[in-house]
């Protein structure tokens, strides 16, 4: 089956005498072209779930598959390729390279995939423009605002056309207007390219973009999938 498929996934962490049940038996399928929004209180396991989907953490039990491939079965090289080519991870901490201009930060995954510098910059530029940073291409991260840094991280994650987009609070540092633009961009990436999108968020607007909304509590999905009101989707889609 294509898309993302988690089956009975468990990830516990040992913390002193205690065990933290960060992810505690999650079964979830997200199809290509689908956007799932994941809500939940702090510590409920949202980031851990994204890291498992990215293959950056290995489950203690259960399986994580993308396009039918069990991530646990990938060789080191295949796992690295999966993370570089298939996954666009927008992390909570941005992880930009300091001392490197916005444009080259956005191009970094293309460069890692051996795209020549000029071509990588050419491909990354429109993504920075789409997140409203067309006039910040040559700024260093230290000279960008928090929201601008977040948008560079979003451009970087999307620039090499990933088939799986894992976005951890992508609108967390943005005002409503910019946040809506980013959500519209993620929706567009899903609809136009058929990307599978999982969006961790506290943003109420995300529920209007998502095909499905799920809530995590104590490492489990707390409620049955529900259809959010779609009234805002058209308005958001128009911002693309
Ligand atoms: N490497 C680790 N070692 C030990 N405990 C961990 C580790 N990573 C996460 N945890 C714990 O697992 C739980 C889930 O963490 P996670 O980061 O997934 O939460 P979250 O839902 O993303 O929270 P937030 O909304 O604050 O970002 C937390 O209690 C956290 O302390
Ligand atoms: Mg988190």
Helix/strand layout:
Blueprint: E1 4-15, E2 18-30, E3 35-39, H1 46-53, E4 61-66, E5 69-70, H2 76-86, E6 87-90, H3 102-106, H4 108-112, H5 117-130, H6 146-158, E7 164-168, H7 176-193, E8 196-200, H8 206-209, E9 212-217, E10 220-221, H9 233-238
Parallel strand pairs: 3-8, 3-9, 6-7, 7-8
Antiparallel strand pairs: 1-2, 1-4, 4-5, 9-10
The structure holds adenosine-5'-triphosphate and magnesium ion.
Can you walk through the features of this model?
By secondary structure, the chain is an alpha/beta fold. The protein has a single domain (30-58, 75-238), classed as Rossmann fold (3-Layer(aba) Sandwich), CATH 3.40.50.300. It is built from nine helices and ten strands. The chain has helices at 46-53, 76-86, 102-106, 108-112, 117-130, 146-158, 176-193, 206-209, 233-238, and strands at residues 4-15, 18-30, 35-39, 61-66, 69-70, 87-90, 164-168, 196-200, 212-217, 220-221. α5 (117-130) packs across α6. Mean pLDDT is 92; it is low at 229-235. Bound molecules: adenosine-5'-triphosphate (ATP) and magnesium ion. Adenosine-5'-triphosphate (ATP) is lined by residues 13, 15, 20, 22, 40, 42-48, 92. The site of adenosine-5'-triphosphate has 13 residues, from β1, β2 and α1.
């Amino acid at each position: 089956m294509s898309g993302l498929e988690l089956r009975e996934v468990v990830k516990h962490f040992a913390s002193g005498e205690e065990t933290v049940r960060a992810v505690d038996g999650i079964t979830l399928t997200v199809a290509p072209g689908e956007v799932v929004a994941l809500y939940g209180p702090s510590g409920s396991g949202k980031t851990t779930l994204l890291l498992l989907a990215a293959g950056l953490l290995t489950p203690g039990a259960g399986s994580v598959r993308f396009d039918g491939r069990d991530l646990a079965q990938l060789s080191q090289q295949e796992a690295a390729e999966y993370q570089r080519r298939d996954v666009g991870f927008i992390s909570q901490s941005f992880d930009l390279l300091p001392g490197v201009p916005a444009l080259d930060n956005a191009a970094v995954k293309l460069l890692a995939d051996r795209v020549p510098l000029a071509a990588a910059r050419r491909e990354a530029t429109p993504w920075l423009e789409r997140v409203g940073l067309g006039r910040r291409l040559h700024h260093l991260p230290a000279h960008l605002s928090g929201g601008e840094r977040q948008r560079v991280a979003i451009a970087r994650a999307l620039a090499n056309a990933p088939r799986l987009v894992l976005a951890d609070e992508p609108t967390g540092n943005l005002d409503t207007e910019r946040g809506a633009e980013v959500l519209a961009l993620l929706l567009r990436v899903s609809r136009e390219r058929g990307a599978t999108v999982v969006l961790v968020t506290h943003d109420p607007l995300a529920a209007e973009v998502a095909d499905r909304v799920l809530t995590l509590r104590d490492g489990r999905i707390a409620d049955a999938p529900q259809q959010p009101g779609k009234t805002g989707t058209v308005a958001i889609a128009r911002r693309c």
